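Q: What structure does this chain adopt?
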Amino acid sequence: MKTLIISDTHGIQKNMDWVFAHERPFAQVIHLGDIEGDEDYLEAAAGCPVAAVRGNNDYFSDLLQEQMIEIEGKQIFLTHGHYYYVAAGVEHLMKEAKGRGADIVMFGHTHRPLIRREGNLYVINPGSLSYPRQEGRKPSYIVMETGFCEQPKFFLKFL
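A:
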C-alpha cells in the first residue's frame, strides 16, 4: 500500500497538487499539521482517505491534536510535534510514541525531513512542502510503502 506523508503546507496548494499528480495512485494521505484552512481542499484533492492532525498554525481547525492510526498492522502515532519540543530533538516524542505502543511516529513542525529508526521505532518527518528549512531548501515529502514485507519502506522525495 502506498501512503503519501506531507506536512507544513501552510495554505499553499501548488506543491501539494504537484505531489498528488505525480504520485498517483496512492491509497492514503497523512498530513502532519499546519494546513492553515485547507482541510476541505486536502480531502477533495487527495481523492482517498486522509489522516490529518492540527499544527501550531491551525488556529481554528477542528482537527485532532494527535491520533493513532493503523496501516497494515503498524501502529502509527501522528502529531505535529510542537508539544514535544521537536525543534530541540526527538527524545520526548520517541518516549511518548513508545509509551503508546507505536511502531512509527510521524511529526512535522521543524520543516526538516527525517527518516530514522531507533530499535523497533521509526521516526518520520516529511519536511515541508511550502517552507523547507533543510540544507538546499527543497520542498519535501515521504512515500511509505507497506504490505510487501514485514517492515515499511520510506522514500524521501523532493520537488
